[in-house]
Amino acid sequence: MTALHLRGVFxxxxxxxxxxxxxxxxxxxxxxxxxDTISSGGWVLPGFVDAHCHIGLAPAGHxxxxxxxxxxxxxxxxxxxxxxxDAGSPVDNRGVHDRDDLPRLIRAxxxxxxPKRYIRELGVEVEPADLVAxxxxxxxxxxxxxxxxxxxxxxxxxxxxxLWPDDxxxxxxxxxxxxxxxxxxxxxxxxxxPGLIAxxxxxxxxxxxxxxxLIAAAKQAGSAVVPTLINIDNFPQIALAGAAKFPTYxxxxxxxxxxxxxxxxxxxxxxxxxxTGTDAGGSLPHGLVRDEIRALVGAGIxxxxxxxxxxWRARAWLGLSxxxxxxxADLIVYDTDPxxxxxxxxxxxxxxxxxxxxx
Length: 359
Ligand SMILES: [Zn+2]
Fold this sequence. Notes:
By secondary structure, this protein is an alpha/beta fold.
């Protein structure tokens, strides 16, 4: 097999160097074999991470067939996302693992919710007494992550409310950790967060209800936040749709939307990791990781930090290496430094996935 060669400024260490790709892996030692140069100059990143998307879910409904799922993963790849964390899918999307031209996929199995307390037919629905047992099942079905719905509208109360008692969360998240899995929780409002954070939640999805005290607690607990700002932009529509029947809920959703940028920036300022997720598959299409990067920059997080969190730091968080000696060769080359020039991310020069040039 011919080796591939590239030269550029490697991030995050900012060193201009030669690198080779041999058998799908990166090396900084010149191999004995001939090498084809695929890129010279530019800035090299290990690709982006969409840390919250749904393969097999589309705005129009479920996508049970592999062909449709492949199309979604290719859209994500086209935007520069070479690693995806699926935050819960109603269909079997394991087939994506078998295609080496698709982004790496880390799956969370199915959403775990309660009857009448989430989007219909999306998650598995159990009562609190069965949450631990369901977590065990979803740990077995996923790739090291479990997804719990932490809050949703309680139609009797007319507002967002936690789905699970705190002691149940503690038992369920503790059980996932015992089994070596991490837990992500959907949470819009404030009230479900204390219980989730006290239970050691690993990943707070959306997190619009993070008050300063809760941010401090999340930092202490080692929780990360994946806000999905481009999907939080749908909160005003959600509020409008529910306003006639659930005015308190509508007011709450509008308030969460209004403070969302400021809250996410506060979480970042306090040292809580803020990763990039699009929530593709719900009300948004796939392939929007760059839009979420722009939204996070727009929220006031420094661009260099957003790029780091969206790329090598998110990979490390999910257990994948960056551009290290011997690492799987997943990389994108840009003409200019995307930490300073955001237009760069829309103009990739070269994309390599698992050592193969794909663009
Ligand atoms: Zn989601």
